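Hallway conversation turned thread

IA: we were arguing at lunch whether anyone had actually written out Endoglucanase end to end. Turns out nobody had. So, for the record, here is the sequence (592 residues) and right after it the structure tokens. Reply here if something looks off.
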Amino acid sequence: MKGFVGALFFLVLGVIIPIAFAGHNYGEALSKSFLFYEAQRSGYLPHNQRVQWRGNSGLNDGKSTGIDLVGGYYDAGDNVKFGLPMAFTVTMLSWSILEYGRQMAASGELSHAMDAVKWGTDYLLKAHPEPYVLYGEVGDGNTDHYCWQRPEDMTTSRAAYRIDPNHPGSDLAGETAAAMAAASIVFRRYNPGYANELLNHAHQLFEFADKYRGNYDSSINVAQKYYRSVSGYADELLWGAAWLYKASNNQFYLNYLGRNGDALGGTGWSMTEFGWDVKYAGVQTLVAQFLMSGKAGHNAPVFERYQQKAENFMCSCLGKGNGNTQKTPGGLIFRQRWNNMQFVTSASFLATVYSDYLASAGKSLKCSSGYVSPNELLSFAKSQVDYILGDNPRATSYMVGYGNNYPRQVHHRASSIVSFKVNPTFVTCRGGYATWYSRKASDPNLLIGALVGGPDAYDNFADQRDNYEQTEPATYNNAPLIGVLARLHAGHSVVPDPKPTPKPAPRPKVTPAPRPRVLPVPVVTNKSGNTVKNLKLSIFKLYGPLWGLTKYGNSFIFPAWLNSLPAGKSLEFVYIHTASPALVSVSSYTLV
């Protein structure tokens, strides 16, 4: 006979064996994130390169155009240098340092963070040879995706594409202005000459963006298939102005935000996403901080409307707004199938910094369902990061090299092909697909720190190289995460920190681990007078590893050493995760 649980079974949450949970090592994840940026480098690699399986590449970039465009980052798993996501990556790396540089220094990672920014800005400076000229792409996504080659071997087109007054790109120029302005603050204390150079370029680029308006992908058509500017350029104009105000304290940019807030959408758009294309939530968060710190002046009425939209974004992430962000059953923000993780990390970053802004101002977040404390906002960000690092229904870490269960077949040309230092034999364009892309084995080179696209709307994930929607990493996935990791590594509660970013520390500081959490042990007891066989359990909201049962489809069955449960006997199993106890129920069984 088969049936559902009635009076025959009791599920008991006992405390027979206490299970301790020590929490995640955010410092380790932070350190590994910076290694990913070293793996993404193009150009001549420096003497202190730590990712040794990579080599020099793209050494003729820009040569056909008569300009030096060597350097920069490959955006994801391909060998193209796309200017818009690269600039956004630099902006977010810089913002992470500006907010949490002290915490990075305490971990011994501030110098690596600054190196990651400078590798990007050195290239962006090259890409801006004249005030109204900016190169926005090197390589062609179409020809590049036809081939599967190491960067060191690539034979694909390295054509360079630019914007200028006759071919404008306000979104690209505005984002690059933001990147250089933000980075100028990072380097102000350590390299003032370099910081001034960056700020001068940022001023020029913003003027270019504002004076000659247009979408960059209408001028650089080859980018449309890969990084199309769906949101247009209005958000980047506001974004660039906000960062230039932070970098220069020039009232022109503050007034620009006040004067153009309505016309360019800063006070109108209430967003549920933030990323390389749509910047409104980021602008609104920055402007809200200007307002709370008393810098708004006569722009205060307009800035209050920016802040309202910023808080709508925060409330939607928490599920306490009028139009809430979709989440997976396991609690992860879900926006789209292809590289959803970019939206998770960017939202987590905004929630983290806004929680600190609120705490510094002595305020709370007002949502439609009531007031929310800064600590609750930070807890939301922590929940997203913990999911990324393994507290999820699959107990999978979506950061390569962190934990024991992480993606092994990453959609990434360089990591999936044997290093040329191990085997220098040339890998041909199509030969790479035949030999390496289709290979059903772990990558020969571990892409440590890479944050892949992540699971689908139902927490499902397939670790397969051809599953590019889920297994391809990107530089802009990690950039916001770095700030949150640094913040969480320093502590999980909101404490205002007025101190400026210090100089890099040579050695990490050891911080105590979080207090262990004791979880109850589930017990299944057979209260019938018969032996139970073919038992199936359903377990929901399980976000960590489990021992004592065998996974069978969407259910759990007896472990390998047990095939029945006699009358009066009990079955115990254990699991570890940071959330509330999982929901356990009996799905079916057979009495014999």
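OS: looked through it. The longest strand covers residues 9-21.
IA: good, adding that to the notes. Residues 264 and 510 are 47 Å apart (CA to CA).
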